Structures are given as structure tokens and as C-alpha cells.
Automatic annotation (TrEMBL):
Coiled coil location: none
PANTHER family in UniProt: ACYL-COA
InterPro entries: Acyl_CoA_acyltransferase, FemAB-like
Protein name: GNAT family N-acetyltransferase
Superkingdom to which the source organism belongs: Bacteria
SUPFAM superfamilies to which the protein is assigned, alphabetical: Acyl-CoA N-acyltransferases (Nat) (SSF55729)
Amino acid sequence: MKGQKVSAHQRANDYVTRVLASPTAILAAAWNHLLALEADPSPFMRHGYLAALHDSGCAQEHAGWQAQFITLWRGDELHAACPMYLKNHSYGEYVFDWAWANAYAQHGLDYYPKALVAVPFTPVPGARLLARDPEARAALVRALLQHARDEDLSSLHLLFAHPQDITACEQNDMMLRHTVQFHWTNGAPALSTPFTDFEHFLTSLQQEKRKKIRQERRKVADAGVTFQWSRGQDITPADWAFFYRCYERTYLEHGNAPYLNRDFFQRMAHTMADHWLLFVAERAGRPIASSLIAIDTDARVAYGRYWGALERVDCLHFEACYYQPLAWCIEHGFQRFEGGAQGEHKMARALLPVKTTSAHWLAHPSFADAVERFLEREGAGIGQYLDDLAQRSPLRAPPHGPQTYIPHNSD
């Protein structure tokens, strides 16, 4: 098989494990078939997305992402697979283990390379262990751990995974770590139907939050900024080029080169255009900013991903990255908007806290014990943090009895 790299050996459970040096070594149809079996498949786990990261050079060995995709086979049939990378740094992951790496270094031990099961640069929860059935998923975890041992790696990390993956990892004695993201749901908990428009959405919030959002939106409008959106094939090459100009400039203004290059987004335009939604901000007839949203039409989920601006306008980021996408989601019947990693400020915009989970294995027994104790303390802190956030919910207390939506334009 083209691109096959390392081992191919028979397991006791009759699977053959093959470690592949590129996602393109796997037929897209076979990979996407496994993904389609998952309860909530993510566009970021599609073969085209992973292949674009690899083929554009964004996630290759020279950038610290050496692909070693683990696959399980019976004959010519793919039964399980996952995107695994050897990493010589911890950038682009969003589950931070720099302190672990520093502790290894202080004791004269090598933390890198480590094994990472994740979608590069993409902190979006989703299936990570694609499998035909629970048996294959469990076998895939065992194959990952065995590969890490065989390659004498310091550790194995599986990030932003779905519950079925976490269960399989936990059954193989991997340690769990929790982080918090902020997601918006179309319809307040007390409502049985989605919002009818943005004003309806605002009625679900406390008066102070409604007023703040209206003030922020008014600042952008008063600055003469308007928005246009385009989706899928309607996003022109010029639109993609303008977006990348904004995206790159915003990274550079913060002192960093962007993780993703122009070639990657060109590949997205050619192979996965239907999964993208672009908002462009204009002032005086000129585009000045843009935000790129990923969408999953089948699941009715949108994902806030990238943004950039050429001019500074007060509250423009909030409008481009939250209010415009939320209004679009309401208008088009999307059920969830995921705001990405970190950002407690998102809660004021009605993106509510959601616990995400990763799984970890460390080869060194003493460090594994120390990390396990750390994770117990950190987990208790995350629980307290979630309890504190629940007390600061931006949502109105649900009224008693049936609700009636009465539009109003000011508070």
C-alpha cells in the first residue's frame, strides 16, 4: 500500500496493525466510511481535512508533526483508524502539557517525541478513534499503547475526544484530563423550540447581557460597518485571498506566524468548500475584516474558527465572530455553535461552559503517578470552576408557565 510505513504484524484478536506515514496512504472512502459510523462526525476528521493539513505542509515532520496514522485491518477491510502524530513540541494542541515537559527536562529525561492523537491546530471535540464496533475501538487503543511502548515514546495523548473514545481509553488505564469550552445552543433551556430571530435569542438573556450586546452591535453599525456572507462554492477565490490576508495579518500583529498557510485554505476551497461559511465586514465600500466559520450541515453545527482584520473598529471581533454567526445559525436552523478553546468572555455572549476531555498515558511510572495526582487536583478545580460559571449564567431564570415571545427593541 502506497505510503505504508512501519509495522504490519498480526494481533491475537486477528487484526493487522499498519502504521502509515500519511493520511493519503488511506483511501478517502474507507476513512470517511468509518467516520460516518460515529455518532457525531466532525468535518475536521474528514479525510480531506487531514490530507490538506499534510499535503500543504502545515502538519508534517518539518513542522513538528510526523504522521504515524494507526490503522487496524482484517484482510483488505479497514476496521479502525486514528490520526496519530509524533510531536517534538506542544504547539497547536490547546491542551497544555508544557509543565510536564519541563519536569522531564529538569530530571534529565526526554519528553519529546511524544505520541498525539488529535486534529492538528483544531481544538474541536469529536470522534478520534474511528471504529466499526466497540471491539475494534478497544483494539485500536491497545495498538496505540503498544506502538508507544515499541517506539520508546515518553507518552501518548488523545485530545478533545468523544465519550466512546474516552471510555475505551479509561478501560486501558489512561488518565483523564478535563478542560472547558464555550458552546451556544439554539434555544434556551426553558424553550421547546429554536429561536425565531436574533431578538428572540436576546430575550433568553438577562437584561444586563441584552443591553451589553445591543451596545456592542450598535458601535459596529455606527462605525459604518456592514456584513456580507457567502457559503460553499459562492466563496470566490478573491474572497479566500482576502480572508487569508486578514488571518495572516492578525497573527503577525501578535508576533506569530499563522499555523495554517495559504495552500491549506486553497485546498479547503477545492475539496471541502461546502463546509465553510465566510463573513466579510465592509466599510465605505471596502472590505476590512473577515471571519471563517466551519459548518456541518447534516449535524446542524457551526464552528467558530478563524478571523482577522485590517482595520480596528471597537467590538468588531464580537460582531464578526459571534453575533453574525449566531444570527446566521438562527436563520438557517443550526442547533449549535462551538466557540473553540478557552475564552470565558464568550459566556457573556451566551456561549455556555461545556466540559471537554482528553486521555493520557506516560511511560515513566514515577512521572505517571505524579501526573495522576496533579490531574486529580486539577479535575477538582475544573469542577469548582464549572460550578462557579453556572452561578454566573447569562440566561434569564426560566419563567413559570407557558412562554410567549414578545419582541422588543430596547431595554
